[in-house]
Design goal:
The chain has about 475 residues and is of the alpha+beta class. The chain has helices spanning about 5-15, 25, 50-65, 115-125, 140-150, 155-160, 195, 230-245, 255-265, 285-300, 315-325, 325-330, 350-365, 390-410, 430-445; strands at about 20, 45, 70, 90, 100, 105-110, 130, 165-170, 175-180, 205-215, 215, 220-230, 250-255, 275-285, 305-310, 335-340, 365-375, 380-385. The protein has four domains: about 5-90, Uridine Diphospho-n-acetylenolpyruvylglucosamine Reductase, domain 2, CATH 3.30.43; about 100-215, 2-Layer Sandwich (Uridine Diphospho-n-acetylenolpyruvylglucosamine Reductase, domain 3), CATH 3.30.465.10; about 220-410, FAD-linked oxidases, C-terminal domain (Vanillyl-alcohol Oxidase, Chain A, domain 3, 3-Layer(aba) Sandwich), CATH 3.40.462; about 425-464, Orthogonal Bundle (Vanillyl-alcohol Oxidase, Chain A, domain 4), CATH 1.10.45.
């Protein structure tokens, strides 16, 4: 329970209309897009409209020792924005201005509440694009994407969010405003704090401005759908495409369970009898696109693809990618609870990981639909279950642990793009060991000695 004095001070910073206290309003901020994490209502929601207000809020919270849980659109998938009753949610959605598009220096600067799709539409007028492309691109905010270091469908060729963040304005735990990085292509002054903040999930500071790198939009692109009668053949095709030094902009996989779920949700003509499909797009100069598309077709046929469809126009292309983007909502309709994981392995190990996921599903008698960014090794095994079935949830927990253990044993990681949040914090020692985890906890303490910034996430400290 937040004290009346704290609430008065909070309202003094923001005005009464920007502090939400009604229990019905608070329900909306008690959860994010992650399944299986119990919702927790915050004590209040603060909605700042300037960096100065963010600074004042953190000063007040620091004085009172009140936890702060920053939030964008809430599309994150690991409980990263789930608050506690003794803290406040800091909703950043009203800081939503694109401040600068610098076409000469190939940069854009925006506030954290800007939706990524809006940013891309704005820079497209200059023949540019912001490559990170999360599945929720039409709703997720730039600040949330930077905090989670999102990847997305174009990660194979273009990389992830950290590859495009050049500078940040950050409010730290005591309310101080700092700037790190900038517009320069080269910047090696001091520690790389920009990279440290990216992917920190709101545990080290709150972003109020973000400067990102832009790239020229490709002149041409070609989209294809390859159909396979086995997941192994699809997986081997992915590995072989990379071996042949072709780097598609996008190389996605979808297994049989996901194919059927998507086609039932949004009929687009996916082959419901297939064991797996690959969604592939190459882009760049027209002559390069033509050559690489031919190589990809040949490789698919070498691995006995039953069919390779090439999108004839933008309408067909958009239908293909819409099918891929609705994979999660389509699977979510199958059973009451959908638990989406983020197992990531070296690209050459994709066939091994796909086989392991199928074996885990069989071993624990679970329905697991798998899709994801096969070209960069980032798979999303999605467990379809029912949280009210206690016995089944015990099997789900064991399956998740085995999936993580397998990914790590193959040289992979706990997360390729969804972050750690609450859901994976307990497994961090598996990947980093006690010494590595301790070092991260000490970094957290240096930035946030009172542990008020998104406590309990990523690297838990005593008492979280």
């Amino acid at each position: 329970m937040l004290s009346p004095v704290f609430i008065r001070n909070l309202k003094a910073c923001l005005g009464e209309e920007n502090v939400l206290l009604d229990p019905e309003d608070l329900i909306c901020y008690s959860f994010d897009a992650a399944s299986g994490i119990p919702p927790r209502k915050p004590g209040a929601v603060a909605i700042p409209r300037s960096r100065e207000q963010v600074s004042e809020i953190l000063r007040v919270c620091s004085r009172h020792g009140v936890p702060v849980y920053p939030r964008g659109s809430g599309t994150n998938l690991t409980g990263g924005t789930v608050p506690s009753p003794d803290g406040i949610v800091l909703s950043m959605v009203e800081l939503s201005q694109i401040l600068d598009i610098d076409a000469e220096n190939l940069t854009a600067t925006a506030e954290p509440g800007v939706v990524i799709d809006k940013l891309n539409k704005a820079v497209a007028q200059f023949g540019l694009m912001y490559p990170p492309d999360p599945g929720t691109v039409a709703t997720c905010t730039l600040g949330g994407s930077v905090a989670e270091c999102s990847g997305g469908l174009r990660g194979l060729k273009y990389g992830v969010t950290r590859d495009y963040v050049m500078g940040l304005e950050v409010v730290v735990a005591d309310g101080s405003i700092i700037r790190v990085g900038g517009k320069t292509v080269k910047n090696v002054s001091g520690y790389d704090l920009t990279r440290l903040f990216v992917g920190s999930e709101g545990t080290l500071g709150i972003f109020t401005q973000i400067t990102v790198r832009l790239v020229p939009a490709p002149q041409a692109r070609r989209s294809m759908l390859a159909v396979f009668d086995s997941v192994d053949k699809a997986g081997q095709t992915v590995a072989d495409i990379i071996i042949h030094r072709v780097v598609p902009a996008t190389l996605e996989i979808m297994d049989d369970i996901t194919i059927r779920s998507v086609e039932a949700y949004t009929p687009v003509g996916l082959p419901v009898g297939a064991a797996a499909v690959l969604f592939i797009e190459v882009d760049g100069y027209p002559e390069v696109v033509e050559r690489e598309a031919g190589i990809v077709r040949d490789i698919c046929q070498t691995h006995q693809a039953q069919e390779v469809r090439v999108a004839k126009d933008e309408v067909e292309r958009d239908r293909l990618w819409e099918a891929r983007r609705v994979a999660l909502p389509a699977l979510a309709r199958v059973k009451p609870t959908t638990i989406l994981e983020d197992a990531t392995v070296p690209r050459s190990k994709i066939p091994n990981m796909l086989s392991a996921i199928k074996e885990v599903a069989r071993k624990y008698s679970l329905t697991i639909g798998t899709f994801g960014h096969a070209g960069d090794g980032n798979l999303h095994p999605t467990i379809l279950t029912d949280a009210s079935n206690t016995e089944e949830m015990t099997r789900v927990k064991a399956a998740i642990e085995e999936i993580f253990q397998t990914a790590l044993s193959l040289g992979g990681t706990l997360s390729g793009e969804h972050g750690i949040g609450i859901a994976k914090a307990e497994f961090m020692e598996w990947e980093f060991g006690p010494a590595g985890l301790d070092l991260m906890q000490r970094v957290k303490k240096a930035f946030d000695p009172q542990n008020i910034l998104n406590p309990g996430k990523v690297v838990r400290r005593a008492g979280d």
